[in-house]
Amino acid sequence: MKAYKIPEATVMRLSIYSRYINQLQNEGIETISSGQIAEGVGVSSAQVRKDLAYFGEFGTRGVGYKVGELYGHLMKILGLDRRWNVIIIGAGKLGSALALYQGFFDRGFEICAVLDDDEKKIGTRLGDITIEPLEVLKERVKERDIKVGVVAVPAAHSQDVTDKLVAAGVKAILNFSPRVIQVPLGVTLRNVDLSMNLEVLSYNLASNR
Amino acid sequence: MKAYKIPEATVMRLSIYSRYINQLQNEGIETISSGQIAEGVGVSSAQVRKDLAYFGEFGTRGVGYKVGELYGHLMKILGLDRRWNVIIIGAGKLGSALALYQGFFDRGFEICAVLDDDEKKIGTRLGDITIEPLEVLKERVKERDIKVGVVAVPAAHSQDVTDKLVAAGVKAILNFSPRVIQVPLGVTLRNVDLSMNLEVLSYNLASNR
DNA sequence: GACTGTGAAGCCATTCACAGCT
DNA sequence: AGCTGTGAATGGCTTCACAGTC
To answer: How far, CA to CA in Å, does B137 sit from each of B6, B95, B155, B167?
Structure first.
């Protein structure tokens, strides 16, 4: 799986496609065309075909794609043909919500640990997980081979926490704090900036079209 | 405020810039160059200048930008020189976390109501807010002039809830459910797909670079 | 006849590079 | 000398359009 340069937008859409295809699969549909996928997720059919073509020839001309097969390909491409262990730093409202979010588990992500530096939270439980102090970070990452870290702490601490995650050996970070953070080469970073999303809406409302 | 066609990426960056500039302002810094902003948020200086130039000439050649002035311009451009009333549908873990998220309030978004159809949740409180049934949607939107709706319900109900928000008169929707939803022209939609973000990380880990 | 896979064209965002101002 | 504002060049993603296949 070493295609040359795949647009990030393509990878994001593959994730969307995969969940739509999964939905179709559950409905018992067996074959689908790029046009139907396109309609289902709101893009053009050419886009769907181009995205898939980066990774191989999954369809049959004149027919379309077999739902089950395509789903398998997509999950493999996305690296979801295995489970990933995840650690969350920050057991505030957001961190707790993420820890309990069923959607992650359903897609193969297992929250192995939730850490916080607040004495009052340490020892309390979130579902099956007991909140632990930051000191156990390195240990948990090693013993559970955790590759993914989630940063759900206030902006002021996000860089500090990120550095610790990196030092512990985490290779991918999902940052929910509204602050730009730096990671070294070899570590992948994605930001989910909740305020930014609302502010883009605000912009659109204000420049009212 | 009716610039012709602004890239969405530009608007997203303006939101980032504005928070970085705010940070500088709090540190007492008075003047800043595009290069310094660029370094602070991780883009190129040309990008910063181009983004700002869509909206006017805010800087002084040879000098840079006055922090206070630029912040004012950015907030005005983003429509954050006023407060926006927001309604959240879904009082699960995520909806509750969003309702209590201080970051929204700090940027001018006020959560006016949280609705859910679960009898057990209705009547319970989230901070200052009492969870109410979906039936009050139209009433709340009217009386508080709510323009922004947040969808934090399971995928199966997201389109239904969205239709109700639109019918009630909401003009912008932030969707947290992992399902593609449709809105009519004149309503702005943004999606925050938590699983998608993790899956892009998974993709990057799997095609390991 | 229907639909995929794909080179070419089109379009849009980013980067370059420099004139213009302080 | 330093930095902004901007037309031109570049690069990259999306759309077009059609040959290839069933």
So the answer is: 33, 16, 19, 10
Look at A78 and B202 and tell me if their CB atoms are within 8 Å: yes
Residues of B in contact with A180 (CB under 8 A): 16, 20, 40-42
User: What is chain B's pLDDT, residue by residue, as a tens digit (209 residues)?
Assistant: 345 789 999 999 999 999 999 999 999 999 999 999 999 999 999 999 999 999 999 999 999 999 999 999 999 999 999 999 999 999 999 999 999 999 999 999 999 999 999 999 999 999 999 999 999 999 999 999 999 999 999 999 999 999 999 999 999 999 999 999 999 999 999 999 999 999 999 999 999 75
Q: Which protein residue's Cα is closest to nucleotide D15 at C1'? A: A46
The answer to whether the Cβ–Cβ distance between B193 and A16 falls below 8 Å is yes
Distance (Å) of CA B70 to CA B35, B52, B207: 15, 9, 41
Model pTM above 0.90: yes
Q: Assess B58–A contact: CB distance below 8 Å, yes or no.
A: no
Q: Report how far residue A24's alpha carbon sits from residue A40's, in angstroms, rounded to the nearest whole number.
A: 10
Torsion sign, CA atoms B99, B120, A88, A146: negative
